[in-house]
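Consider one such protein record:
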Amino acid sequence: MSETSALVTLLGGVAVFMFGMNLASDHLKRLAENRVRDLLGRISNRNYLSIFVGVLLTIILQSSGAVTSLLVSLGRAKVVTLMEVMGVIIGTAIGSTLTVQLISFKVTEFGFGIFAFSFAVYFVVQKSIPKSIASVCMGFGMIFWGLQLMSDGTNVLRENTFLLSAFKTLNDFPIWTMLITTAFTGFVHSSAVVIGLAMSLATSGIITFHDAMYWVYGANIGTTSTALLAAIGGNYVGRRVAWAHFWYKVGSVLVLIGFTSQFVELVDSFSANIGRGIANAHTLFNILAAVIFYPFIPLGVKLITKYIVPKESEQDFKVKFLEDKIEEPLVVIAQARREALRMADIVSAMVCDSITLFKSYNVDLTTSIGDRDNQVDLLHREIKMHLVDLSRIKGLGSDILELIDFTSDLESAADVVDGGLRRLASKKHRLKLEFSKEGWSDLTQLYSGVIDLMKLSIASFELRDKELAEKVISKKRELRKLERRLRESHIERLNRRLKESMNTSEIHLDVLAEFRRISGLITNHAYNIIEGHR
C-alpha cells in the first residue's frame, strides 16, 4: 500500500468510525427512548444515584456530549437544577469509557463481517424493533471496521519520516498535543474517535503510551464543546450546566496531569497491550476524577452559581405589585388589580403569538409560550392567595370575586393557547400540512377578531366601564356568528374536495373552536361589570 493510499485509508477509517458511532447512537436512542425518560425522572439531589444515571444514559446514547446537551436543555427549561445534574455529569464521564473499552479488544478484524451480516438482517426483517437492533449492530460493526482501517493506515504511515518528525515535535510539547486533540474532539464531537485514533497510532509505534495520555486529556476536555455549544442562546441555568461540565473536565486534567508518568506505569503494569492500556487509562482517569471531586460537588455548585449569574432579562419571574406585609384591604385589592392587568398583557401576547406558530413553526416561540403560561399560573396563584384572606371582610366580596373570576378566566385562556393551539401547531408542523389559502384567510380573520376583543376586554376591566363591557359582549356575539360562518365555509371546501382543506380539516376546526373558547373566557368579566352597575 502506498503512503497516499494509507492516508486515504486512515481518513476513511475515521469517517467510517464516526458514521458507525452516529448510527449506533441514533438507533439506541429509539430503542431506549422510554428508558431514557425514566432515567431522567430519577435525577435527584442524591448525587451518588445521579452518577449511576449518568453512566447508564451514556451507555444508552453512546455519547457523553449528547447526555450533557440534554442536561443543558433541561436546565434551560428549568426542569433540573445544577446540584441535581452534577452527579449525572460525573457519571457521563465514566459511561463514555465503555465504547473505548470495547474497541480495545482484538475484534477489529470482525468489524466488516459484523457490518455485512447486520446489513443483510436489516433488509430481511420487517418490524421496526428488529430493524433498529440490526442498525445498532451495523453501527458497532462500522466502529470496529473503521478502527481496523485506521490501524492499517497507521501501520504504513509509521515509516513516513515527515509524519514521524511531526509527531516527535508534538510529543516534545505534550501541552500542544493536548490542546490540538481538544480542538479536534470539539470538531468531531466524539472522544471515542480521538482515543481510537490514539490507540491505532500507539499500536503502530508512532506515539508512546505516555504521549497517548495527552490525547486522553484533550479528548476529555474537548467533549465538553457539545454542551457549551448547546448552551449558546440559552438561559443562565443551561450555561451553568455547560460550564460546570467544562470546569469538571479541566479540573480533572489539572489534578492528574502532574502524575502522568506514575499513572502510565501503574496502568501499564496490569494491561495486556498498549491498546488495552490506553482504554484502561481512560477509564481509570475518569473513575479517579469522580472519586476526587465527588465530595466537592456542593462547593463547585456554589462557585459556578456565584460567577455565572442571570442577566437582568433572565431574573426569575415574580409578582411586581403584591406585597406580603400590607394590611389595608383596599390597597391589597388595588395591587391585585395591577397584577391582573399584567397577567392580561401576558395572555394577550400569547394569543398574538399563537397564529405565528401556524404560519412558521418555531421551537423557541413554543418554549416562550410555555414559559409565559407558567408565569400566568404563578400570578394567578399569588393573586388568589392574597385575596382569599380578604374575602371575609364585609363589603369587599364582590370586588374580590370579580378579580378572582377575571384572573381564573385569563389562566384558562393561557391554557388554551399553551395546551390547545400550541399542540395543534406542533401537529401541523409534524405532519407537514398546509392550510388552503381560503382556510388560512378564515383563521386569520377570526384571530384578528379575538385580538380586537382581547384589547376591548382588558380596557373594560381596567376602567370598569359599563359601556365598554356592553361592547365586549356585543363583539363576542359577532365572533360567535363569524365562527359559525367560517365552519360552514370550511365544510363547503370539503364538499369541493379541496386537498389542503381535507388534509387539515381536523386541525382547522379545532383551531376555530379554541379561538371561540378564548373569546368566551375573556368576555365573562364583562357580565360582572354590567351587573355591578345595576
